[in-house]
Specification:
This protein is α/β, with parallel strands linked by helices. Helix 22 runs antiparallel to helix 23. A hairpin with an 8-residue loop joins strand 21 and strand 22.
Length: 1072
């Protein structure tokens, strides 16, 4: 049978126009179709609530929709399942009560979500062969009016039948009735529930019949019937609570399955050793051992002794009994007793815990003891299962050990910053709003009896005493004297001389007492002492958020069930089917991008994560935009979060999406870091817009009603509402995070923004939103995911029901501070992104629908793309003729890729400067090349933006000083920087300065510039032209610690395709 519903449910059976059966991800579903009407819009909100409830013992009614219809979808359970009937359980009380407990848990979970089931009956409870119970049809009671199916009202509570009202207590009554039916059928065959029960009034007669069957009314039955009576009370206020139902069932189950009692038969030599060790009579040994184990829990371990014989260790209290393993024996035969704390600790951690009791003696077995031999096999099976579970748990935790190590190192680094140094003001630059300070120890050096001074706030700061304040880090300056008690200036380190001085840049006019720069009213005084410290508080808050997110992952507190297990072992994800998409809103999407969108919309339960690798220029943002558009159009209730490490990446997507959807929130602490467009979507501005719209609506349509006093009351309420709207903004600004009690205005404001479905923010910035804690997102999309650490990703991702990570592990990795990385033993592991790990795991797991690589290049001219494609992507990237044509440059160079080879220049070698390298020869070559490009651009009236990328900051400083771009190239768009400043952007022309070179081509190590990720980003920024400046032979022969020199692949690619690439050998100081 052909056709799909919603592009994914393959129709297998058509029962009628409104009722069909469909297959999706190997499961069969029953689908009822209801055409949308003006009054059916409420089902969108109902769907959102029902679909948000997820529990292992609940099978929800799923509600999906398209432009024309709602689809009410039930899973069909096939063979291996039975509805709630006595024949399934027989006389097995334990299985019966365990089934009750699971359904009680399911009902309790529904009630915790402030909902009810409304139609619990035996047909809506099914059980599998492993005694797992499932409650079906949750959500159906909310949509009965639209569905053709008839509900089973026999199991309705009195209030449902008599008053047409349903509540949580109604579920307790219905469940009690199901339990009664099952117990009668299984243990009181003479009493027919079907014949005896018609409504509430029948219960008294049924209970009377039960009491007459005294031979069947044992202690367990009596307790169950008493519980059911408490559940089947007419008055809902007197009906037992669901939590108490569970407690009572727990107690009943513990009586059905009491703890076992085993005999431990101690061998003679063990008794004799105990006698000698403790100096007691041989006759008192069993009793002495018995006293030592009373009241303690037992832990079993199955293994082999040193002679390779089967052995059982039983740890009870401080004692461990080493016993033989023989299924033919009635007792545990103990040949050794250990009192080893490490063994006891091991068994308590990894052994099988039980509540079993033991009788110790030389001939300990008696009729009150259970047969040990009969239980050995089942105990061993439970132990092995526990071992497997522990192994999986430890494997999962080991997989995030590197992130834990990273967080530990970061915490130590933050603690080291908790120190204060005394500094003396040396000079002030009012034009730059900066001040230079010398360390007090340097100022006082030479003065007899004076020592270097540091005011310590934390013991860890002792480690930090020899470290200077680092460039670009935030600091706080405070006064030393009482007159400066109120002085507290925040700034950023803009310069530092090791052990001597530090320059701090402050905010505009911060160092002045007024903004009138003509008045010399400085807040700081020369030669005066101040305290300077790192501003570590923000770092500490961020660290806490990341650490908490990692803990939530470990403890399973994630919206995706078993998230840690799944990302560690992607085989746990099912192999999912892809949905069909009828319409792509961006008609320019290529087939590869369309496939990525299909994979994104196919995410579902047990296939919740998609990893999209987006090599340079392959349209990551375009693909994300289409995914968001599809979800907005086809799933009108889904909430989507778009996050990234950088504000720029977040705003790139926002700027594309805002043309489609204007109900957007852009969350962030610093509005100035957002793009101009993104600033229009901060919560305050969105709220103000919504308030104005509502005010205009009220003013345009004042309340009208024929009866005057009713109209007056309506207008009074309307005016009251207007007044509240006018006060919302001011009330919100006064409502701090610490104010837990929300005003009515704040609640109203939250209500206004509640239905905004599209949220944007950085990975950590999003957590500053006061609504974030209570949010769960239907989809979270993270761009540039390869640049974030696992704990950074987790802050929003633990709240995702479906997760899409977009990035490229072959570009820049997460940035880890040098002070942090030096504290980590396995540095390579710490630098490997979670994105890369998950990508590689998904490849091995063969989950092709949860993994995707974009392959069409839209950024660069074909020969540029081919170069980095061959070097870093195994030649997988493609460029269409249309894109290639649009990227052609109009300069006189013979190719789009040009290598200026400095190998034959006499002054080609690099020089050491500080911790970096500089190369005057390369710098001069770049200057000459820029002059040539500038001349041709002028002659041909071209406007190309140019980027000069160099690996070393000191070389960047040299180029900046030499080129004086703002002066010599004022009319041109030229940027100079290291690779980090170019990530996520591109230029028409890129000049890459290799820097490294040496005379005589000695085989030097070039690990820093040979970093594949950084080199890939550097070369892939070019759109029309890529110019590389460097000693080709030196770079080809240079060595790397990992024996993987990426320059080899690049140079070989250029030399094999000399007709496509241009090599210019430098023979003088001329770039020509």
């Amino acid at each position: 049978m052909n056709g799909k519903i919603l592009g994914k449910y393959q129709i297998t059976k058509e029962c009628s126009g409104e009722l069909k059966h469909g297959l999706y991800n190997g499961e069969e579903y029953r689908i009822e179709i209801v055409v949308k009407t003006p009054s059916s819009g409420k089902y969108s909100e109902i769907a959102k609530r029902i679909n948000s409830v997820s529990h292992k013992n609940i099978s929800n009614l799923k509600i999906e929709e398209d432009f024309t219809s709602f689809y009410f979808i039930d899973k069909n359970f096939g063979e291996g399942y039975s509805d709630l009937k006595a024949s399934w359980f027989g006389k097995n009380y334990a299985s019966l009560v365990r089934c009750y407990l699971q359904i009680v848990d399911a009902v309790s979970f529904i009630h915790q979500n402030d909902m009810y089931h409304g139609n619990i009956n035996p047909q809506n409870i099914i059980v599998d062969r492993n005694d797992n119970a499932y409650l079906l049809d949750f959500g159906r009671c909310y949509v009965y009016a639209s569905l053709k199916s008839v509900d089973n009202s026999l199991f309705y509570a009195p209030e449902q039948i008599e008053q047409n009202e349903c509540c949580k207590a109604s579920d307790i009554y219905s469940l009690g009735l199901c339990m009664l039916k099952l117990l009668l059928e299984s243990h009181f065959e003479k009493i027919s529930f079907a014949e005896e029960y018609s409504d509430f009034s029948s219960l008294e007669h049924i209970f009377e019949l039960v009491s007459q069957n005294e031979d069947r009314l044992d202690e367990i039955n009596a307790d169950l019937f008493l519980l059911m009576k408490n559940m089947l009370v007419r008055n809902i206020d007197e009906r037992i609570e669901i939590s108490k139902v569970r407690s009572r069932l727990d107690r009943i189950l513990s009586r059905i399955e009491p703890c076992k009692k085993y005999a431990i038969q101690v061998m003679d030599k063990v008794c004799e050793k105990w006698r000698d060790d403790y100096g007691i009579s041989i006759y008192d040994v069993p009793e002495d051992i018995q006293k030592r184990i009373e009241g303690y829990r037992a832990y079993f371990e199955f293994g082999k002794d040193k002679n390779d014989r089967e052995e059982i260790k039983i740890s009870v209290g401080e004692l461990t009994f080493c016993c033989s393993s023989n299924e033919n024996q009635s007792s545990f035969f103990c040949f050794k007793i250990l009192e080893n704390p490490s063994i006891t600790e091991r068994l308590q951690k990894y052994g099988l815990p039980t509540n079993d009791k033991f009788k110790v003696g030389k001939n300990a077995w008696c009729f009150e003891c259970d047969n040990a031999g009969e239980m050995i096999a089942s105990l061993k099976e439970m132990y092995e299962q526990r071992k497997r579970n522990i192994a999986r748990y430890e494997t999962d935790n080991k997989s995030i050990a590197s992130e834990e190590n990273l967080l530990t190192a970061e915490k130590k680094t933050i603690d080291e910053k908790k120190n204060t140094k005394k500094v003396v003001l040396q000079s002030i630059d009012k034009g730059k709003d900066s001040a230079t300070f010398v360390y007090a120890e340097q100022k006082n050096m030479g003065k007899q009896g004076e020592k270097s001074e540091m005011v310590e706030e934390n013991p860890a700061s002792k480690i930090f005493q020899k470290k200077d304040f680092k460039q670009s880090q935030e600091v706080i300056l405070k006064g030393c004297s009482r007159s400066d008690d109120d002085l507290s200036l925040k700034g950023e380190v803009s310069g530092s001389k090791s052990g001597e001085s530090v320059t701090v840049s402050f905010g505009k006019y911060e160092i002045l007492k007024s903004e009138d720069t003509k008045k010399n009213t400085l807040r700081l005084k020369k030669d005066k002492e101040y305290y300077l410290s790192y501003d570590y508080e923000v770092e500490e808050i961020i660290w806490s958020k990341r650490d908490k997110a990692l803990d939530m992952l470990k403890n399973g507190n994630t919206a995706i069930p078993n998230f840690l297990r799944k990302i560690n072992r992607p085989q746990e994800f099912i192999k999912n089917d892809l949905v069909d998409i009828d319409t792509f809103y961006n008609k320019q999407l290529d087939k590869n991008q369309q496939l990525a969108v299909r994979k994104a919309l196919s995410l579902n339960n047990d296939c919740e994560v998609l990893v999209i690798q987006g090599p340079p220029g392959t349209g990551k943002t375009t693909t994300i935009t289409e995914i968001v558009t599809q979800v907005l159009k086809t799933r009108p209730n889904d909430k989507i979060l778009i996050a990234s490490q950088s504000n720029q990446a977040v705003d790139n997507v926002l700027e594309k999406v805002c043309g489609i959807e204007d109900k957007i929130l852009r969350i962030g602490n610093e509005e100035k870091k957002m793009s101009k467009i993104a600033q229009n979507y901060t919560p305050e501005k969105v709220l103000n817009k919504l308030l104005k719209e509502n005010m205009s609506r009220i003013n345009a349509k004042p309340a009208c009603f024929p009866i005057e006093y009713v109209q007056d009351e309506m207008r009074r309420l309307q005016n009251d509402f207007k007044e509240r709207l006018q006060h919302i903004t001011s009330k919100m600004s006064r409502n701090t995070e610490g104010n837990r009690k929300e005003s009515k205005e704040v609640q109203l404001a939250t209500l206004f923004t509640k239905n905004i479905r599209l949220i944007f923010g950085t990975l950590l910035g999003i957590s500053s939103w006061k609504n974030f804690r209570d949010m769960t997102f239907d989809m979270v999309i993270v761009d540039e995911a390869g640049r974030a650490t696992l704990s950074e990703l987790l802050v929003p991702c633990i709240k995702a029901r479906r997760l899409i990570l977009v990035g490229d592990h072959k570009q820049l990795a997460p940035v880890i501070d040098d002070d942090v990385i030096e504290k980590i033993e396995d540095k390579d592991e710490a630098k490997t992104s979670f994105f890369q790990r998950l990508f590689e795991r998904l490849q091995k797991a063969e989950r092709e629908n949860l993994l995707h690589t974009l392959t069409y290049n839209y950024r660069a001219e074909r020969r540029i793309c081919d170069l980095y494609s061959e070097a870093f992507y195994d030649g997988a990237l493609k460029t269409t003729d249309e894109v290639n044509k649009s990227k052609k440059h109009q300069l006189s160079f013979k190719s789009s890729v040009v290598w200026y080879d400095t190998g034959k220049l006499p002054n080609k070698q690099d020089k050491q400067r500080g911790t970096g390298k500089i190369n005057d020869c390369n710098a001069k070559c770049i200057e000459n090349t820029l002059n040539r490009i500038k001349k041709e651009m002028d002659e041909r009236k071209l406007k190309y933006d140019i980027g000069v990328i160099t690996p070393y900051k000191v070389q960047k400083d040299l180029l900046t000083s030499l080129l004086q771009v703002k002066k010599k190239y004022k009319a041109y768009s030229i940027d100079i920087g290291t690779v980090d400043s170019f990530q996520g952007s591109d230029r028409d022309i890129i000049i890459y300065d290799c820097v490294r070179a040496a005379q005589q081509n000695r085989k030097a190590k070039i690990d820093f510039i040979a970093d594949e990720k950084r080199l890939n980003v550097s070369l892939s920024r070019a759109k029309k032209m890529l110019i590389i400046v460097g000693d080709m032979k030196f770079l080809y022969q240079a060595q790397c610690s990992d024996a993987n020199n990426p320059f080899v692949r690049i140079i070989e690619c250029i030399n094999k395709n000399k007709e496509s690439y241009e090599i210019i050998e430098m023979r003088g100081q001329n770039a020509r």
